[in-house]
Amino acid sequence: MGSALHIRNDSPDHALVVRVSGEVDMTTAAQLERQLEQACAQAGPEAAVVVDLLDVSFLDAAGLGAMVRVQQRCHQHGHRLRVVASHRPVLRPLTLTGLDAVLEVVPSLADALHPEAD
């Protein structure tokens, strides 16, 4: 397999940002899901949970499924899940599956942190 999955959390501007790099596939999707679930549980009232996929080099169905499940859990906690993606290895699976219409996908971290600026 390719590069390992690396995850780092930050908390800027009323959001909890989960920065992901490497490959999100069947061997790493559970790790991502756990980290995102923890972020949803730890986020403050009305805070967004942002998953930054700008440094992800591969995303498969297991990773997509993890994000959809976490989106549902975040919604139950009153949080929005925003996905930052702007390059083909991540956007292509999102668009081919139609999940770009289900998940809140934005092209930059700035757009995720300040959606009202649009």
TrEMBL record:
PANTHER family for the chain: ANTI-SIGMA FACTOR ANTAGONIST TM_1081-RELATED, ANTI-SIGMA FACTOR ANTAGONIST TM_1081-RELATED-RELATED
Cleaved signal peptide residues: none
Record's protein name: Anti-sigma factor antagonist
Domain (STAS) ranges: 5-116
NCBIfam families per record: ant_ant_sig
GO molecular function, one term: anti-sigma factor antagonist activity
Chain ranges passing through the membrane: none
Taxonomic lineage of the native organism: Bacteria, Bacillati, Actinomycetota, Actinomycetes, Pseudonocardiales
Record-stated family: Belongs to the anti-sigma-factor antagonist family.
CDD domains on file: STAS_anti-anti-sigma_factors
Organism: Gandjariella thermophila
SUPFAM superfamilies registered for this protein in UniProt: SpoIIaa-like
